[in-house]
Inverse folding.
């Protein structure tokens, strides 16, 4: 079956950290997804709007939310970046395909969850937290959020709020420090943990290897999404 297509209308675009935009769209009628999935936007070339290519973005909102929220990092001369910075505004329409992907939370496991991400890789975890944090109270949930610089930090207010509200949730901001090192300082025993990795492929690949070889986490308990 082909992936459904939708037209979406931008409701907000805001620079929330250095080179990071939060972009929101009204959730179109009939669009459904599970926390952790992504969409493919049809992105027109700035100088030639007939030239369209897909770009993947993880949904950072929860299925219960009215908006589809994304955190998009701008990169030099990127196709989406140029569109985002020069054309995207409230009212802009874009076409997308979705929802896609299998980076879903395993809610059948009795194990704790450990989330490790870099930069915009936090998006699927925000969706998990908004969807399941209030229900998943029988397990510990730790989030390690890696950033190169302090001015790249975003969405921390909500994490702080979650940590205050839910005793089973803790988050760690890792500025210019490897998320896996911070995780090893905070967690001494990974035998009861499921690992979720999202962000730069360098990080996801490296931490997957460490999780299996050093933390002795079974391969089946390591889930990853690389933002290639
Ligand atoms: C499943 C998935 C989920 C993702 N989710 C997110 C997310 O939530 N947030 C997010 O920010 N990103 C996410 N990404 C990454 C995203 O899809 C894009 O790759 C990223 O945003 C860059 O897109 P762009 O169009 O701006 O840049 P692109 O046009 O793809 O260019 C990327 C870089 O390559 C350079 N480049 C392009 N073409 C050439 C060329 N011919 N020769 C030399 N250099 C070139 C550009 O100058 C630019 O610096 C995700 C990726 C995947 C696979």
């Amino acid at each position: 079956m082909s992936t459904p297509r939708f037209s979406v209308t931008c409701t907000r675009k805001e620079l929330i950290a250095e080179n990071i935009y939060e972009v929101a769209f009204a959730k179109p009628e009939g669009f459904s997804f599970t926390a952790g999935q992504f969409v493919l936007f049809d992105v027109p070339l700035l100088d030639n709007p007939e030239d369209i290519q897909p770009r993947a973005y993880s949904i950072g909102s929860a299925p219960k939310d009215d908006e589809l929220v994304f955190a998009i990092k701008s990169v030099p001369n990127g196709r989406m970046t140029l569109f985002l910075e020069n054309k995207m505004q409230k009212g802009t329409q874009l076409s997308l395909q979705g929802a896609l992907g299998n980076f879903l939370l395993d809610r059948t496991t009795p194990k704790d969850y450990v989330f490790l991400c870099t930069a915009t890789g936090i998006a699927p975890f925000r969706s998990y937290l908004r969807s399941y944090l209030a229900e998943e109270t029988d397990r510990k949930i730790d989030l390690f959020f890696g950033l190169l610089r302090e001015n790249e930090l975003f969405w921390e207010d909500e994490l702080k709020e979650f940590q205050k509200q839910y005793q089973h949730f803790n988050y760690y901001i890792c500025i210019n420090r490897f998320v896996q090192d911070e995780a090893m300082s905070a967690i001494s025993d990974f035998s009861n943990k499921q690992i979720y990795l999202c962000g730069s492929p360098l990080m996801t690949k490296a931490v997957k290897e460490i999780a299996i070889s050093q933390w002795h986490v079974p391969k089946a308990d390591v889930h990853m999404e690389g933002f290639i």
